[in-house]
Amino acid sequence: MPIRINLLAEAQAAEEARRKDPVKRAIWIGGFAIFLVLLWSATLQLKIVAERAHARGFDTRWKAIEAKVKEVEERTRTVRDLELKLSAIDQFTTNRILWANTFNALQHSTVDNVQLVRLKTEQTFIQNEASAGRTNATGTAAGAKPASVTERIILTLEGKDSSNRPGDQVPKFKAALAADSYLAAQLQKTNNIQLTSLSAPNADGVRSNVTFGYQVFFQEKERRLE
To answer: Is the domain defined by 99-134+145-224 classed in CATH 3.30.70?
Structure first.
């Protein structure tokens, strides 16, 4: 039986020992673990980049929606303002003073030897800003007022008294105005007819006369802009 002698047994044993070296094995395992960590980190970075791009897309769409919302809000405010103005115009149209009735009342408020020579109407609208009011202990807003407009009307009358005693008919003319049912319903409750001027007697042709002026104050009307 032949005898086999392995002359490289010692070298092979040394090589086998090196392959089984735990330090080298640990280095290989550590390197592989580092590779996995780097791969995981790279994957996370790719996901972060993708999510950022996705978020930028949402941001772009949000800005586009926000611009449209602002446009809608602006148009809503414009529509609201137009509705308020139309409501105010409708109120002024339906509730305006009818001067024909006033002039008709003047025709029926006559006094002998008194002649109206001039009249002037003054109609002003004063805008009152809205006030938010204050919040009371229960959380309810108290004293809040919406925007409104106050209408003020003043009628100025200038006349001439040519009676036998010029000036005696002037207060009677005021009394005739105050006694008219239409004017009584339209004028202020107090100080509604005020004498503004009264001249000394002066000759006008064959008869002497005095000129006078009255201001007639109508009731103030507040119209809400809503």
So the answer is: yes
